[in-house]
Design a protein that fits this description.
Distance between the termini: 99 Å
Largest sheet: 3 strands, antiparallel
Helix content: 55-70%
Structural class: mainly alpha
Strand order of the largest sheet: 1-2-3
Oligomer: single chain
Order of helices and strands: HHHHHHHHHHHHHHEEEHHHHHH
Number of helices: 20
Number of strands: 3
Radius of gyration: 27 Å
Length: 413
């Protein structure tokens, strides 16, 4: 592949002392990851400078580490600020090809990997948590273990001060509601540690959670006309615009979550039957929805413009190299970018407000509450009833008269 990219100069890069043996494979990975020909040439032409820098520390690829590449990146940033990013791209290639261990996995290994694995199995097999919940609780446990390590303490010597300092640190970056979830996950981890005496008992009872009041906030829903205007403002002349329009149209049409949208694959769309199959991440229950003509048209335009390359089967993928699956956070970033470009005055920063807007739209059109709950994937009617608080017009009709109140003005004497 490198020979076809640089037919006259490929020998120069293949003969690099350290990176020469992997240069051809690196270029193949760049092409497979969706990098353009210009980006590939730019990255390959930066390799001699990267090679010269890492050669001061190691003499072969097998000895490369994240620390070595980080030092290389810092050095190149001072001289080649526009090309230093090639070091990070090379790092991703080395991890993807198994030539170097993922830095995040290495950190997790240092943080008592056996304990983290045991806790993960406990959450999955004993508690029966969903995969997303297991991932969230495991991340909290690993962050707390890292906090203990930085303080020079061990699990067997956990003190109340360790917990207080961790929560104080987390409280600076988390909202009250998110901090409550973080504390709940930390309590579960502390209870797990006390099951076989690895940590002092009763520590989980010493943690106070932020005070949250039930139904203290209204669901964040946009007016339906604003939703229509927002969708119309999407630039559908570009591949990314077609992708974003299809994603947001799915949320506005069916009330899907961001995690459900990015999880849609080609196998979930039954074109002839006009059915869209959704794997609900929160409830782990399947849902089949009718494909509307507007949604089908948006999906067809997106897939014709940007068909997923093998071996991917997901409908929505990254539009910028490296090619890969889309994460739910990417939907949020695309939504925020759309708000900035549209010029609309929208204070909400997440696409979940489209889901709330859809639920309120159904409610105002007389859709039964049970049907709305089934479409949104709610387990209980209580979860759906929160939208009743937004139907202010209907609530006024059922309001009771205040006893003793005057219905009309009486003449003043």
């Amino acid at each position: 592949m490198l020979r076809s990219l640089l037919p006259k100069a490929h020998h120069k890069f293949l003969s690099l002392p350290v990176l020469g043996p992997i240069t051809d494979g690196f270029d193949d990975w760049l092409a497979a990851s969706g990098f353009t020909g210009g980006s590939r040439k730019f990255s390959i032409r930066m390799l001699p400078r990267v090679d010269a820098n890492v050669r001061r520390r190691v003499d072969k690829v097998a000895k490369l580490s994240h620390a070595v590449l980080h030092d290389c990146w810092k050095a190149l940033m001072k001289i080649y600020p526009c090309g230093a990013g090639t070091v990070h791209t090379l790092e991703r290639y080395l991890v993807a090809s198994g030539l170097m261990v993922d830095g995040r996995q290495a950190i997790a290994t240092l943080q008592t990997s056996t304990l983290s694995e045991e806790y993960t199995n406990h959450l999955r097999q004993v508690r029966g948590f969903a995969a997303s919940t297991v991932s969230s609780h495991r991340r909290t446990a690993q962050c707390f273990l890292q906090h203990l390590k930085e303080a020079g303490d061990t699990v067997s010597c956990i003190r109340a001060g360790n917990i207080e300092s961790y929560i104080a640190k987390a409280g600076k970056r988390l909202s009250r509601a998110t901090l409550q979830h973080e504390i709940a996950a930390l309590r579960g981890f502390l209870r797990f540690l006390t099951m076989d005496g690895r940590a002092p008992a009763g520590l989980d009872r010493h943690i106070d959670t932020p005070r949250l009041y039930r139904l203290e906030q209204l669901p964040r829903a946009l007016p339906w006309e604003t939703v229509r205007t927002l969708l119309q403002s999407v630039d559908t002349t570009s591949p990314m615009g077609l992708r974003d329009y299809a994603m947001f149209l799915l949320i506005a049409t069916y009330g899907l979550r961001a995690s459900e949208v990015v999880g849609i694959s080609l196998d979930d769309i039954r074109w002839r039957q006009g059915i869209l199959r959704i794997h609900q991440r929160k409830t782990s229950s399947p849902l089949e929805l009718p494909l509307t003509n507007e949604v089908m048209s948006a999906l067809v335009k997106h897939l014709k413009r940007t068909p997923p390359p093998a071996p991917y089967r997901r409908v929505f993928l990254r539009m910028r190299a490296p090619m890969g699956v889309l994460k739910p956070t990417a939907v949020t970033e695309a939504f925020q970018a759309l708000i900035r470009k549209s010029g609309l005055s929208i204070s909400y920063q997440g696409p979940h407000c489209l889901r709330h807007a859809y639920a309120l739209h159904l409610l105002k059109n007389g859709t039964p509450l049970k049907t709305i709950g089934d479409i949104l994937g709610h387990r209980t009617a209580e979860s759906t009833s929160m939208y009743l608080r937004l139907a202010t017009g209907d609530l006024r009709e059922v309001a009771l008269a205040v006893p003793g109140a005057r219905t009309s003005k009486e003449p003043q004497c």
